[in-house]
DNA sequence: AATAATTGTTATGATTTATATCAATTATAA
DNA sequence: TTATAATTGATATAAATCATAACAATTATT
């Protein structure tokens, strides 16, 4: 998530009072809490607020391992699909090939993943995790799982399953994670 | 939502078959669908996928009116809080003051909103919508509401309410709607 | 053999988000 | 009052994310 939302923005205004609605010419909303109004009634708004919060949480969770979300996804998908090519892995997680190349450079320099030229098609690079990469991924999965459970606990009994079921009904291509 | 996800990524690979799991040295996932594996079990992953899709939909919905999501939010929040200052509105929707200035420049040039120096504090700019801005906002609300209802319809009976209730349990500062 | 398509790279652009600095103004302290 | 600090909004600029175009190497197709 980067690039969305924030945790700063320490409400500059402040103060009590009640604000008025409407947009009649010259109307004034005196000091008090800002009314986001109908915004809060849209699924998109609530969805975004929740997602931004979770993603920021996710970033903080992975920071100790020096992993960005896209790097985590890459390690996880390579681990589950060893030997697949760059283009395949990149498409699965929704990253453009040019950007994916740079991402892989970083993982390779850290000794977490490696590219090997396929002998059947010498244009493509087969991807694998190194033992070090697998170990780091396992560590990351522990942290992310713990965070995920904490969020699930907030949702009450059955809340997590209900949420996942509802989210599945909202379309979302399988290839647009990060 | 800008800046996340995509609708491109036309699966380059393709083909049938079944892939293997695991990361044993030298293991190979032969042609077939990529396994995102555990990724799909995380709330954050599903939440992000759904949110990215909804946000892209949102952007397309507002394109005919030449409005970006942040512009829509700004118009809506100004309308609900006429006369509030830039800093207050910016904080409410989670935009940095420097970036919010440029956004307002655009709205002012199009005659949708206006800044007026407050006489009580001549540093600050009170914000209002113009009649034209209010009219455009009403038009935008119609489009966005229709889109929101379509999404709600996918969730089945009571699904929309259940989803909103669950999302409220996930923290998300009130001031981070792009 | 000639042409077209694919893979991964390089270079580069657009967008979004964030930080640092500043002038104008207001608030606070001595 | 005067001196100092804080606030508002603007400007310039950086950083991160996401995307497109063009290219060499390789493979597929005609």
Write the topology of this structure.
The structure is a homodimer of 178-residue chains.
Chain A lengths: L42 H20 L6 H12 L5 H8 L3 H13 L3 E5 L7 E5 L1 H24 L4 H11 L9
Antiparallel strand pairs in A: 1-2
Helix pairs in contact in A: 1-5, 2-3, 2-5
The structure holds a DNA duplex (30 and 30 nucleotides).
Quick description:
The first copy, chain A, is mainly alpha-helical. Helix content of chain A is 49%, strand content 6%. Chain A has a two-stranded antiparallel sheet with strand order 1-2.
Keywords:
178 residues; homodimer; 2 strands; Arc Repressor Mutant, subunit A; 6% strand; 49% helix; mainly alpha; disordered N terminus; DNA-binding; elongated; two-stranded antiparallel ribbon
CATH superfamily of the domain at 68-169 in chain A: Winged helix-like DNA-binding domain superfamily/Winged helix DNA-binding domain
User: What would CATH call the architecture of the domain at 68-169 in chain A?
Assistant: Orthogonal Bundle
How many extended strands of chain A?
Answer: 2
Quaternary structure:
homodimer
Largest interface: A-B, 94 and 94 residues
The residue-averaged pLDDT of chain A reads 81
Please outline the major beta sheet of chain A. Answer: 2 strands, antiparallel
Please give the order of strands in the largest beta sheet of chain A: 1-2
Order of helices and strands of chain A: HHHHEEHH
Q: How many individual helices of chain A?
A: 6
What gross morphology of chain A would you assign? elongated
Strand content of chain A: 5-15%
Q: Provide the structure class of chain A.
A: mainly alpha
Give the CATH class of the domain at 68-169 in chain A: Mainly Alpha
| Portion in helices of chain A | 40-55%
Rg over CA atoms of chain A: 22 Å
End-to-end separation of chain A in angstroms reads: 8 Å
What is the CATH fold-level name of the domain at 68-169 in chain A? Arc Repressor Mutant, subunit A
Unreliable parts of chain A: 1-25, 174-178
